[in-house]
Amino acid sequence: MRAHIVLAHPEGQSLNGRLARVSEQALAERGWATTLSDLYAMGFDPCDRPQHYTTRANPDAFHVQSEQRFHAEQGTTPGDVAAEVEKLSQAELLIVHFPLWWFGMPAILKGWMDRVFVYGSVYRSTMRYDTGFFRGKQVMACVTTGASADACAHDGHEGDTRMHLWPVLFSFRYVGFDVLQPEVLHGIGSATYLEDRDSGLSGFDVLTQRWRATLQSIETRVSIAYNGDGDFAPSGRLRPDAPEYSAFISHTPKI
Fold this sequence. Notes:
Order of helices and strands: EHEHHHEHEHEEH
CATH class of the largest domain: Alpha Beta
Radius of gyration: 19 Å
């Protein structure tokens, strides 16, 4: 089995960095082969820009999808992107480590998705959702928040973290992944995570142990339920008899 790990945090010694290394170690101990993309350490450019392409489908105006598809068909996708696509193609499991910043993912991770989910090869109108390029593969996000679990609850001041994560994770569903329930670690902004506790373990230690235990049973992790392609009418709207799994795709407006 092979896993690809993506880290989106600028500090390698952060909790996110430590958790990414735990992912490598814990999976390797169980016989998995792993690869790691530390996006900041790599200097990965999150912006798709003309300079990435030595030739252009249209030299007069830069249209991202047109350029991505043209170069996918020519086999000239930019090297940094092609390398990431290859890692994803070889892996059965993708693990993404990132902090929740401003109720979403860090910009570098969003840019990684913008560039690596290549139009023309990773997705197109006939290759998404149930027929997505990465169908049969799984993804799991390990996410940290600065606020407490109470503040990030459904009735918390920060709003429900799992609702904030839904649009982020849905992008992986779009390209075919089975999306496992995320692991969300709260309260990382507290000073207690930098200091030893009476048990002799720091908060970092407690959370890395928790994450290691999660990886030990990754095969039985429950997936997020999404509507299948057959649940939608030709118009693209949910059929009246289709199940409802989320406030984001529902029979009645939630706002």
